[in-house]
Amino acid sequence: MKPRILIVGPTPPPYIGPSVATKLILESELKNDYQIVHLETADRRSTTNIGIFDLRNIFLAFIHIFKLSAILITSSPHIVYIPICQTIVGYLRDTIFIILAKIFGARVIIHLRGGYFRKLYDTSNIFAQCIIKNSLKLVSKVIVLGESLRYIFDRLVPNQNIVVVPNGIDSNYITEEEFEKAQEVRMAKVRNDSMINKVTLSTKHYALSSRMRILFLSNLMKSKGFFDVIKAMSEVLQYTGDSELIVAGEFREQEKMKNDVMSYMDKSKLDSHVKFIGTVVGAQKRNLLLSTDIFVLPTYYRYEGQPWVIVEAMAAGLPIITTDHGCIKEMVIHGENGFLIEKQNPQQISEKIIALLKDDDLRNRMGTKSRERFLKHYTKDIFIRGLNSVFEDIYVHKLSAWVRGAHETDNSEL
């Protein structure tokens, strides 16, 4: 009989890191080796409601706790996999999940899909710290996204119980043929020849352009750094007027932020060089990545861990300009497949964009290296193998404990 695993987590929409990860797991080859049961925890409202303490989220928490209890009773999973929250209220719900799973005899694996949890613990009151510390004692394994995030659980979880499993997407999300064609187009821009009109990328949504394209793709929040990129464009355009910034994503903050951005663009005369195209998913996103030349994400978003969008940009063979935040420095090696810059520093953003625009060989070399690093470290197969290794380890230990317990019972009866 196959081991039973309960996967707790949201699925899209909305398209955010945790929901993308859950969808990948549920659709993966893991279902061939395990009986997978899923507890849906998605809030189908827009991303603006994520992390907000409101009546709807409280109601959803109670519904999820009730549904978890029902699944534990009816399915008796051997393992419960929980992606944990990085807010106190959210983690209190997760603590109830952990306790219920243990009551019903399951082994618990938690997955931290960010980099803020240590800060959450350190800044919490003694009562909350006590809850966090004691709940972690009930957990069999903790998964983090990178080696540089192990410190988060120092003195909270034994090091041998912390496992690194990086994010990963399908290696054919962008095929080798699509990547090579995209590189041809990018080099055709440099030569300014007619090849750009001959190479097709199935860009149904985004026409090829002779302009050099810089892409920002994420939720439009100040802490994601998108306003810093817009400010950097003023200086970039002094170097070359033949470039444009594509901003893809949904505004997640108050209307004032949007008004400030539009006011700055109007004052700086950036309207013809900065395009807001809204949220993109699926084929639209792929085509957008393939039709651009440089990817920029100067994030300092506090919950950031290992942005999926950087993995996608690497798959498309783009040089990356980003920050040393979360475990991004493990993805983007400074000077190899991109640049790491200071947070909230438009000057450095513009300097690195200009450096890439000026040096065609550097831009091409870094983009190729991004693609290589993606294929070596951040594919779906690597991600799923990592999870499977954790599941196997936990199940074997659970089975061994059951056998030992049965053996001890037999001996006591003798």
Major sheet strand order: 2-1-3-4-5-6
Class by alpha and beta content: alpha/beta
**CATH topology (level 3) name of the largest domain:** Rossmann fold
**What's the CATH architecture of the largest domain?**
3-Layer(aba) Sandwich
Q: What is the domain total for the residues?
A: 2
Q: What's the SSE pattern?
A: EHHEHEHEHHEEHHEHEHEHEHEEHHH
CATH homologous superfamily assignment of the largest domain: Glycogen Phosphorylase B
Strand % is 5-15%
Main pleated sheet: 6 strands, parallel
* E-strand count: 12
Helicity level: 40-55%
| N-end to C-end Cα span | 30 Å
Would you kindly provide a written description of the structure presented here, covering whatever features stand out?
There is one protein chain. With 414 residues, this protein is an alpha/beta fold. It has two domains: 4-168 and 379-413, Glycogen Phosphorylase B (Rossmann fold, 3-Layer(aba) Sandwich), CATH 3.40.50.2000; 176-377, Glycogen Phosphorylase B (Rossmann fold, 3-Layer(aba) Sandwich), CATH 3.40.50.2000. Helices cover 48% and strands 14% of the residues. The chain contains 15 helices and twelve strands. Strands 2-1-3-4-5-6 form a six-stranded parallel β-sheet, sandwiched between helices. The chain has a six-stranded parallel β-sheet with strand order 9-8-7-10-11-12, with helices on both faces. α3 (55-75) runs parallel beside α4 (88-103) and α12 crosses α14.
Topology (elements, then pairings):
Layout (H helix, E strand, L loop, with lengths): L3 E6 L7 H10 L3 H4 L1 E6 L14 H21 L3 E6 L3 H16 L3 E6 L4 H6 L3 H11 L4 E4 L17 E3 L11 H16 L3 H4 L13 E6 L8 H14 L3 E6 L6 H13 L6 E5 L3 H9 L3 E4 L10 H8 L4 E4 L14 E4 L4 H13 L1 H18 L2 H34 L1
